[in-house]
Design a protein that fits this description.
This protein is α/β, with parallel strands linked by helices. It has helices at about 5-15, 50-60, 75-95, 110-115, 130; strands at about 5, 25-30, 40, 45, 65-70, 100-105, 125. It has a 5-stranded parallel beta sheet with strand order 1-6-5-2-4. The protein has a two-stranded antiparallel sheet with strand order 3-7.
Length: about 140
């Protein structure tokens, strides 16, 4: 079963001495709604193409012990991508080619994260007031 991580927990990890891409990584599976801001250092892996590219992502992140997925709200796309990724990564671990790892889902997605941290440049980059004040994008 996949576990959730709160925005506060993720913010604490990002601000800690943990190294992005080595100790953790954030995978944002938003598609066109990627515009308007993202978690600092997040990799965009659009949900519309996720299944096709999941094995490449697993290969790139197989030495990362914590992988956090999210979409706008983390209700559909983020959890689905996390499940697909976890299954592929578990297969790699079963073959002895991986390390123990956690696959997490950001509770509330980028929408909740940006609502709390949009003004903190250590946590959010490329944030656009125009996008987030327009409810069509959410």
């Amino acid at each position: 079963m996949l576990k959730y991580i709160s925005p506060d927990e993720l913010a604490a990890i990002i601000k800690s001495d943990k190294v992005p891409g080595k100790d953790y990584c954030v995978i944002d599976v938003r598609d066109d709604d990627w515009a308007g801001g993202n978690i600092k250092g997040a990799q965009n892996a659009p949900s519309s193409q996720f299944y096709v590219h999941v094995h490449d992502l697993v290969q790139k992140t197989k030495n990362v012990p914590m992988v956090v997925f999210h979409c706008a709200l983390s209700q559909v796309r983020g959890p689905k991508a996390a499940r697909i990724y976890a299954e592929a990564r578990d297969q790699l671990e079963g073959d002895g080619e991986d390390i123990p790892h956690q696959v997490l889902i950001l509770r509330g997605g980028f929408s909740d994260f940006q609502a709390k941290y949009k003004d903190d440049p250590e946590l959010v980059e490329n944030w656009s007031k125009e996008v987030w004040s327009n409810p069509e994008w959410i």
